[in-house]
Structure formats: C-alpha cells, structure tokens
Amino acid sequence: MTSPKPATGTPTPPPTMSLETSSSSRLPQRIGSDLLSALCASTLVAPLICLIDKSIILKTHTPQPIQTILLKNLRSALRHPLAFLTSTPYLLINTLYFSTYTTANVTDTAVSYSRAQPASAVTPGPAKFLATSTTNLSICLYKDAQFARFFGAAATATTSAAASTAKRAVPKATLGLFAVRDMLTIFASFNIPPILGPMLGSLPAAQFLAPASVQLASTPLHLLGLDLYNRPRGEAGSPTRAERWKIVKRDWFGASLARMGRIVPAFGVGGVVNAAVRKRLMGRLE
Fold first, then answer.
1. Distance between CA atoms of 232 and 256, rounded to whole angstroms?
2. Has residue 233 got a pLDDT over 60?
C-alpha cells in the first residue's frame, strides 16, 4: 500500500469576481444611485432657478430693476410655499434638471460599465455631451416656450388684443437661439470641468467657473430670443435690428449676472452635489 503523495505546487486560489462581473451584478443599484444623485441636485437648485427664470423674462418688458422683480417673486413663494412647489413653472424646472443630471449620470455608468471601469468613474467624452444636450434641449425648449407664455409681454398684457397674442407660437428663430444658448451651457457644465479641473487643481472650482463664464456669451442669445417672441418680426411696429440690439445691450450686463446666479446653482452647486452624492453612493458599490 502506497502512501498518498503530498500536494505540490501553489494552491489554487479561490475564484474571484471580476470588476465587470461585479458591476454587472450591481447595475440596477448603480442606476438607482444615478437617479438619487440627480434628484438630490435638482430638488436643491430648482426653487431658486425658477424664481430667477421668471424674473429675467419679466424684466424684458417691465421698467423695474431685476433685483426688485426677484425679491417680489421670492416673497410670493415664501408666503405660499405649497402653491409654489406644486406650480407648473417649478415642476418644469425640477423635471428639466432631474432629467439632465440623470442623463449625465447614466451615460457615465454606461461608459464605465462598457470599459470595466470603477462605478464612480466619469467621462468628458462626446457621448456625454450629445446625450445630455439632447435631453436638456428637448425639455428646455418646451420649458422656455411655456415660461414665455406664462410671463412674457403678451401674458401680462391687459388689453384683449395683446392678451390674445399670448397663444401665438414661439418663433423658430427664438427656439434656435435658445438651443445654441443651452448647448453652450451644457458643454461648459459637463465637458469642460473634467478638463479644466486638473489645470486649476480643483474640480469643484472648474465646476463653478466654466458654466458661469460662458453666460457672457450666451446671454445675448437669450435676450434676443425673448425680444423676438415679445416683438415678433413682420408685425406692425416691429422693431429694427438696431432697436433689438439696443434692448440686448441695455440688459446684457444685468441679465448676465442674473443668469450666472442661475447657472451657478444649476450646474455649479447642483453639479458639485450631484457628483459628490454619486461618488459616495457608487463608492459603496465598488
């Protein structure tokens, strides 16, 4: 009877789960984390953005300073918070930013999953820009058209002839200007920070600086689009190009500051909150 030979060689290690297998098994949790991160960011920033958007539109056809209009709207929201938080303008804003952040987050998840990267990885690539800008533009153009109808010159007019124009269609030129405006903002908010952050030595600083700075270029497009809606071309008394440019120049600086104040919470504060919540949640899944 021969005795058994002792085992030789290196013991076979127990099977381990690869990063891709682990990510695949937790894909629903990753998508849930994307949604929760987006909801935290959109709910935080939507109230202020709604008030600023309303005030900017009202400023285009009222003589009051934008600070006065903003404070008036703020007092109204504080006196009637439930009515404000259930109003169509607020829900439109919240839906817009929830959808935008969700698209950015899910795109990051799709790219990191396909490349077997950690769950918290982010991408500055063209896929993210195309997906996020498409989502943002489709909802934002509808939101802007509704806000123009709610708060534009025709909507606040008292004469029956002027009020009847409140139902007119938003001009294609206005929609085109709004589209370019939003594409500039989306690119500066989601694609520039990952590139600019290492140069500045701070990703949060880039997240604030990039979207705020681009407003100096995008605000004239916004003001011209609103003026084309409030004073359509082809109608009696329609302003000349010089008269439109005069309105844009008059409101450029104030509206730029207001839109920076809008964009900083929307894609600065919101972007930092979304990224921080997502990173924490995804870190628990890695």
1. 23
2. yes
In angstroms, the CA 263 to CA 210 distance is 10
Show the DSSP H helices in 115-214 as ranges: 126-151, 160-163, 172-186, 193-200, 203-213
What's the pTM? 0.73
Whose CA is closest to 51, among 26, 85, 21, 101?
A: 85
**Distant-in-sequence, close-in-space partners of 226: CB < 8 Å, separation ≥ 6:** 57, 60, 148, 152, 174
In three-state secondary structure terms, 59 is helix
Is the model's pLDDT at 5 over the cut of 60? no
Question: If phi over 0 gives left and psi between -120 and 50 gives alpha, with beta otherwise, what is residue 201?
Answer: left
d(CA 227, CA 245): 10
Q: Decide if pLDDT at 230 tops 60.
A: yes
